[in-house]
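Incident log, structure service

09:12 report received: a user says their structure output differs between two submissions of the same chain.
09:20 pulled the input from the user's history:
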Amino acid sequence: MKNTFRKIATIALALTLLSSAGCSKKASANSNKTLKVGANITPHSEILEVAKPILEKQGIKLEIVKLEDSVTPNTGVIEGSLDANYFQHVPYLEQFNKENNSDLVSVGAIHYEPFGIYAGKTKDLKDLPDGAIVAVPNNVTNEARALLLLQQEGLLKLKDDAGINATVEDIVENPKNISFKELAPEQLVAALPDVDIAVINGNYAIEGGLHVKEALAVEANDGLAAKTYGNIIATKAGNENNEALKELVKVLQGPEVKAFIEEKYDGAVVPLN
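09:34 re-ran on a clean worker, output below:
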């Protein structure tokens, strides 16, 4: 009987040591690991700041590099000065890869920012004049999104199969004879005094002091855009299984970050998990 108990105790100790070794191995894999992540200032870097102390407890130091444009975060990952970035959705990433022969991939989707139509010279969509000037983002994926929102509001009609690849060439009905002013997304808020209305990315609207509740129209939360344009953590192909990056995504999809997003942005940023 004593031998039996001794064997059981030995097995239990061995299992404990194996378990401890496994945990130690995981901890050491993340210990003193630094992740350098490029992000737009609002809301992405603000959301990353919430994740920072949570990751630090796990031995992961998060270094946030704040960037204001929509190209540098990707080129930084490609060149290796950044481990990952947080600013874009999958259609933009795929278009960037196509145009730059790059191999960026998504590690996980975190949140969705509804596009809005904001007032410039025209304060109500029903008063939009004939020949109105409408400012839209000048990159392919976001311009398509803007056109889909204008179609949602009955201001134009696109070809049935245009979808998320729509361009102004796909407009089949334009009853208001709208003229489009294509601008870099970060310039749209500043352009409002010079146009009738502008269709603006959620993050740039927030940075410009606009609120989604003040928008003349907003993308439907259950529409094509919400299903397609979730903002992601992106990295180089082959790096998506990096344990520290996977932990970053887990934290960003977790309850603490979700609560922060819902309280801070009041509908202008919507958590996807």
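09:41 both user submissions now match this output. Likely a transient worker issue. Closing.
09:42 reviewer note: Residues 2-30 form the longest helix (29 residues). The longest strand covers residues 104-112.
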